[in-house]
């Protein structure tokens, strides 16, 4: 049974007791997950959900509104049998006192039906100040889980202009043949967040540390870059991604779409990957400046294009197991178990270090070892 199909016991939404406002936070996929949670929470506490506000203050500083990224009307209509959703808080409620609440992380039904729902006695409007990972996945009733699934895969579609550009880019990418979408998470923000500096110059490592120290939420945890990498917590570098794909047997003429923002260090760090796989494509190579202009300076909208090309790819490989990787892999499973490669970074780092030290060489022995290690980590090679 599809995860979106309600059980026979599912009923129409009960009468609303008030309004739920939500301020999302994080990048595209963190916000998507938060929005789906807010849909479920609105159902649990019998609330009318006001279309959530997207994050405009985090690292990405994107001014996009909900309707710039998602199809707002479709979102409202698709959830009509589940939760009442409106675009704006009614005028008569604009002056109402709001319960500004940070929902407790990983809370379940008891918390929302108890502590949160009890707030209706004193308030008509509850504001969820943040939405990231606020609903526990465990022990939710089947119909609440299915509602989250419907919100994610049926209701939360991208805005028409993003869908159209995404389809255009997919068609252009397919003109080169079956392709890999490589989510190369070698960007300034993730390197600063994870504290990963392998292969960087001292000046670059210092720049990333300053970015990390400037973020109140990131700086609270001391990080040893070497320990991070040895435990497999760092994104693969472009060079490591190239060695890995070669070891898996992907030929040099394989088209690869780089699903990423600006790669830290630019071309200097992309040379090793490009030398092995010259058919590297990106949004900027597949479309003209004029075609991408409507999305320029809007990181969330650009990330949505990467999301579409990643979901539609023949093979998807993330180099870091973050929000994007999990969201795309889940969407690909929903669409029919499309092939996703999940690198065993902890094991790979040891191999990469031995190659750097000259202890091991690339070739059939290394390839056999990598393939054997990853047999259970993805549906094995058949189309590329």
Automatic annotation (TrEMBL):
It is found in: Membrane. Keywords: Carbohydrate metabolism, Fucose metabolism, Glycoprotein, Glycosyltransferase, Membrane, Signal-anchor, Transferase, Transmembrane, Transmembrane helix. GO terms for cellular component: cytoplasm; membrane. It is a single-pass type II membrane protein. InterPro entries: FucosylTrfase_pln, GDP-Fuc_O-FucTrfase. One of its GO terms (molecular function) is glycosyltransferase activity. One of its GO terms (biological process) is fucose metabolic process. Coiled coil: none annotated. Signal peptide: none annotated. Pathway: Glycan metabolism. Belongs to the glycosyltransferase GT106 family. This is O-fucosyltransferase family protein. It comes from Populus deltoides. The lineage of its organism: Eukaryota, Viridiplantae, Streptophyta, Embryophyta, Tracheophyta.
């Amino acid at each position: 049974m599809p995860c979106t199909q309600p059980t026979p016991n599912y009923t129409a939404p009960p009468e609303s007791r008030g309004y739920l406002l939500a301020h999302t936070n994080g990048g595209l996929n963190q916000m998507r997950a938060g929005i789906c949670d807010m849909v479920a929470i609105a159902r649990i506490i019998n609330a009318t959900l006001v279309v959530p506000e997207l994050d405009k203050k985090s690292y990405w500083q994107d001014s996009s509104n909900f309707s710039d990224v998602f199809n707002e009307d479709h979102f409202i209509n698709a959830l009509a049998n589940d939760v009442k959703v409106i675009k704006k808080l009614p005028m008569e409620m604009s002056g109402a006192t709001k319960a500004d609440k940070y929902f407790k992380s990983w809370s379940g039904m008891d918390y929302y039906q108890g502590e949160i729902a009890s707030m209706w006695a004193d308030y008509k409007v509850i504001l969820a100040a943040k939405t990231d990972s606020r609903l526990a996945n465990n022990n939710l009733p089947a119909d609440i889980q299915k509602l989250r699934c419907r919100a994610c895969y049926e209701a939360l579609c991208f805005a028409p202009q993003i869908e159209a550009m995404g389809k255009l880019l997919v068609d252009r990418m397919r003109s080169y043949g079956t392709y890999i979408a490589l989510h190369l998470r070698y960007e300034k923000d993730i390197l600063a967040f994870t504290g990963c500096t392998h292969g960087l110059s001292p000046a670059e490592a210092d720049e990333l540390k300053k970015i990390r120290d400037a973020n109140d939420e990131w700086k609270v945890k001391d990080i040893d870059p070497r320990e991070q990498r040895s435990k497999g917590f760092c994104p693969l570098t472009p060079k490591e991604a190239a060695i890995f794909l070669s070891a898996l047997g992907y030929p040099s003429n394989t088209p690869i779409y780089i699903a990423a923002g600006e790669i830290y260090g630019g071309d200097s760090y992309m040379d090793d990957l490009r030398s092995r796989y010259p058919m590297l494509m990106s949004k900027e190579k597949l479309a003209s400046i004029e075609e991408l202009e409507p999305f320029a300076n809007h990181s969330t909208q650009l990330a949505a294009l990467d999301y579409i090309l990643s979901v539609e790819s023949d093979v998807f490989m993330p180099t870091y197991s973050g929000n994007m990787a999990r969201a795309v892999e889940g969407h690909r499973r929903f669409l029919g178990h499309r092939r996703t490669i999940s690198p065993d970074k902890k094991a790979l780092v040891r191999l990469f270090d031995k190659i750097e030290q000259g202890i091991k060489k690339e070739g059939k022995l290394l390839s056999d070892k990598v393939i054997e290690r990853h047999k259970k980590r993805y549906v094995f090679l058949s189309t590329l």
